[in-house]
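2024-03-11 09:14:02 INFO queue: dequeued item Sigma-70 family RNA polymerase sigma factor, len=132
2024-03-11 09:14:02 INFO validating residues
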Amino acid sequence: MTPRLKSDKCYLESFGFGCRLEHWLKIVVENYCRQLFKKRTTIIEVPEGSGDRKPNEITTIDIKSLNQTDVNTMLGQMRNKRYRDLICYRYVEEKTNEETAELLGMSMDNYYNKHKLAKEQFTNILKKEGLI
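2024-03-11 09:14:37 INFO prediction written
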């Protein structure tokens, strides 16, 4: 440790508690971790009245505003084939929910769950590519 200009003593000497380096480092690290934890708890707080929906959640996907080659590229980037087919039937081919569920061979309850997940995945890809 380098000494201070005014007192010619280093920080460790004026620290107290026996002035052992290990003890000083332990307390410095504990204080730093406490500061990080306090910052983390303020970030996690959710404002009241936000409800179940996320503020930036997209309720509909407007495929017509996008270029068809961009849509095909984005569909190709989707990892799950079933989600890709669901988005293609529902938004590109403009089938109804019932027709899409029948084409995919699933119940309506299962369809609505998969539709929500597929829409999330597709909008995340669109956001990543900067199209929305």
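2024-03-11 09:14:37 INFO annotate: The radius of gyration is 28 Å.
2024-03-11 09:14:38 INFO item closed
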